[in-house]
Amino acid sequence: MNQPLITDDTVVFGLLTLCLGFIFYTSSRKQGFWKKFYSFVPAILMCYLLPGVMASVGVVSDETSNLYFMASRYLLPAALVLMTLSIDLKAIANLGSKALIMFLTGSLGIIIGGPIAILIVSIFSPETVGGNDFDAIWRGLSTIAGSWIGGGANQAAMFEIFKFNPDRYGEMILVDVVGANIWMAILLLGVGKTKRIDRWLKADASAIESLKEKVTEFTKRITRVPTLNDYLMMLFLAFTAVGIAHFFGGHLSKFLVQSSETISNPKSFLSFLGGNFFWMVVIATFIGVLLSFTKAKNYEGAGASKIGGMFIYILVATIGMKMDLSRVLENPGLLVLGLIWISIHAGLLILVAKLIKAPYFFLAVGSQANVGGAASAPVVAAEFHSSLTSVGVLLAVLGYVVGTGGALLCAYLMEIASKV
After folding, report:
1. Residue among 71, 69, 70, 54 at smallest CA distance from 6
2. I need a surface site. Which of 72, 167, 189, 313 has the fewest CB within 10 A?
3. Bigger pLDDT: 160 or 243?
4. Is 133 left (phi over 0), alpha (psi -120 to 50) or beta?
5. What share of the chain is helix, strand, coil (3-state, %, to 5)?
6. What whole-number distance in Å separates Cα of residue 57 and Cα of residue 59?
C-alpha cells in the first residue's frame, strides 16, 4: 500500500470539512457558473466525489484513516436519533408495499446477477472466473454477495463459509467498493431529477409527498430561534443515545454470541445477530422512534434534523475516501464482472419500478438498503427528505436479515455458473 501524503486524521478531517464548506458555499450561489453546475450535479454527489479524487491522487487514504469508523459509529447513530425525532409512523405505513417490493427486487438482482455476470465474462475471459479449490473466484465473489445484500457482517460470514484465499481477498474488496460506489454516485445523480424520473416511471409519489409535507408543516409550526440550551439538549439526546446504543449493542451481541451456537457460528443464517453494528443501528433508531412520542419531538423546530443532516454529510465525505479511482485498472476482468453484476441489479430494479410504477425514491433506497447497507441507505433517503431517513434504516436492517441466506443462494448459483 502506498503511503498517502497526509495520514494525520486531524488534518484529513480538516480537508473533508474544507470540501464540504466549498461545496455548500458554491451551491448556494444564485447565479453564474455554479448555479448552472449544480443544476446538473447534486451537491451531495460532489461531497462524495471530492474526497474520492483526493484519495485517488494520493492525498488521503481510507486505509490509513479512522474517520469512516468515527463517522459510522458516532455520527451515524446520532444522526439517526436526530432525524427520527419527528417521525410519523402512521404516514410511513401509508407508503405501502412498494418500498418492500423494490428492496426484495434489489436482493434478487444481486442473487441472479452474480451467476449471470460469471457466464457473460467466461465467454471472453474464462481465466477471470476460473480458479480451483480455495482460489476459485466464485468463492471470493460470495463475499461481495454478502456485502451487497446485507453488509459487513454478512460479508465476513461468506468469507468464513467458503474460505477464499486471504491473499486474494483484497481484489474482492476492490470490486465491492468500486461497483457499489459507482452505482451510489449514479443514484445520487438521479436524486436531482426525481420528478422527471417519476414521470417516466408513471409513478404515484403522492404518499411520499404527503409525508414530506406533513413533516414540513409540523416543522414550520414549531420552528423557533434555537438557544444554547436547545443545542445542548439535542447534544444530550443524540450522544446519550449513541452511548446507550453502543453499550447495550455491544453487550447484547456478546451475550447472543456466547449463549447461542447458531449465532456464534459465522456460517449460520442468524450470525448477523452477533454484530455490534447491527444492534447499534437498531437501538439508535428505536430510541429515536421512542423520543418521537415525547416532547423531544419539538426539537425538530430547533433544527434537530439539520444537525443530523450535517453528520450525514460528514459520513458521506468519509465514504467518498473509499473510492480510489487509481486502483480501477488493477484487475480489469474482475472489475468488468462487478460492473456487469451491479448493472443487472440496477436493470432489474428499473424494470420492476416501471412495471409497478414505483417512485424513484423506492428504487434508490431499496437498492442502497442492499448494496450500501445501514451506512448508505439513510444517506440516500435523507437526500430526498429528512423525514424519509427512517425508511432507509428499516430497509437496511431488513438487509442484514436476508443477507446471509441470499448470499449463500447466490454463491451456490455462481459455483454452478463457473463450471458451465
Report:
1. 54
2. 167
3. 243
4. left
5. 80, 0, 20
6. 6
Pick from 218, 277, 206: which is nearest to 85 by CA?
A: 218
Q: What is the pLDDT of residue 209?
A: 81
Helices (H), 192-331: 194-201, 206-222, 228-259, 261-264, 276-291, 304-320
**From CA 92, how far away is CA 396, in angstroms rounded?**
15
Q: Tell me the three cell numbers of residue 105.
A: 427486487
- What does the angle CA 117 – CA 393 – CA 289 come to, to the nearest 5 degrees? 170
- Most distant CA pair in the chain, distance: 67
- First-to-last C-alpha distance (Å) of the chain: 36
pLDDT in tens, 360-380: 999 998 998 888 777 778 878
CB 363 within 8 A of CB 104: no
Question: In Å, how far from its chain's centre is CA 184?
Answer: 8
What per-residue confidence (pLDDT) applies to 269?
61
Q: How many CA atoms lie within 13 A of 368 on its CB side?
A: 28
> Which residues are within 8 A (CB) of 209 and not within 5 positions of it... i.e. 6 or more apart?
none
**Phi-psi sector, 359: left (phi>0), alpha (psi -120 to 50), beta:** beta
DSSP string, 121-152: HHHH-GGGG---GGG-HHHHHHHHHHHHHT-H
Kindly state the cell numbers that stand for 145: 454477495
Strand, coil or helix: what is 93? Answer: helix
The answer to whether the beta carbons of residues 59 and 319 sit under 8 Å apart is no
* Mean pLDDT of the region 156-175: 76
